[in-house]
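To assess whether ligand presence alters the predicted conformation, the chain was also submitted together with NAP. Input:
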Amino acid sequence: MLTLISAKPQNLSPPLSFHFPLFPFSPTSSLSFHPPLKNTLRLRIRSIDAAQPYDYESHLRTQHLKSQSLKIAILGFGNFGQFLAKTFSRQGHTLLAYSRTKYTDTAKSLGVTFYNNPDDLFESHPEVVILCTSILSTEKVLQSLPFQRLKRSTLFVDVLSVKEFAKTILLKYLPVEFDILCTHPMFGPESGKNSWDGLPFVYDKVRIGNEEDRISRVERFLDVFAKEGCRMVEMTCAEHDRHAAGSQFVTHTMGRVLERFGLESSPINTKGYDTLLDLVEVTAGDSFELYYGLFMYNKNAMEQLERLDMAFEAIKKELFGKLHHVYRKQLFGNADEGAEDRPKVQKLLHNGAPPSADAVKPETS
Ligand code: NAP
């Protein structure tokens, strides 16, 4: 509706208003419209945008947002589920959630409809279901879900921090009609609390139907993260697990070791020490169950733990070796100097077998 208000006199009530048909019409054509006026009033248009009979721009924007928005169900509304919901909600998606604990109030404050049982949630027919439960409970949760209540074209997404296990188990339990997208946002409520800009988001399109609407739905879901500035990384679940064991699992392990060690802030913290304190804080925010899941369900984790152990031993050996050298010097003084030239025998080579003749040759340099 275009509202024309007279500048003079002010006592005209109600203000003159003209109703225009919706189409065909353009914002500019409205400005050149001159209705016959009985008294010669000077008319001034106060607000073009608000007064448009049909605010085409905002209509287009609303239409676009609607077409991009998804009906997303979050299964497992704990630490990470709630963290994701904040951003999904801000972006205008319709959110539903189910968890074994009742999070009704928290959900309400985040604009999420909370369901007390998965049957009711699934009967609301979300387009996307995100599995945000702990790694350890995944199989049990999947076995208990009433998939028959969902639409056959539902997109199932997981955010588990281990990916090969997630892929295997989703393929095992989900109906074949469902699409499967395995993802791992490589950040959490601590590291991503201010922004997701530049943070890695790993995904693997494990099984997506050929239909255009299925393809575009996955893209719309991925766009949720891309829009926040995430660094989108497409890689296989196996590749993810290899990289994650060497980076994420090691990070969590060091954070937990230092937490046990009992780091405390001091008045003379160096920058490096502050980094360690931050690491402890970030890892302490995650449940032990999550850490245990990283270890149990990533086959590469054990090797990394052993490497850490060996590295720690090697550092200790190097330090103690130097200390031993100084100690011997103090004990034996110069009398021990020739010891360096004596043949070095590595006694426990070959699982304790006697050293070969080569191994006892004196070192020449
Ligand atoms: P978590 O301890 O790994 O999982 C907690 C969630 O699992 C809660 O929603 C909890 O439900 C649910 N749960 C645990 N045991 C269950 C069971 N037996 N039956 C049903 N539900 C059960 O902590 P989280 O940080 O929230 O992580 C959730 C998922 O996100 C995990 O798969 C994790 O690998 C992934 N992830 C986490 C982060 C992170 O930074 N935290 C980052 C990326 C990915 P209730 O609360 O209702 O008990």
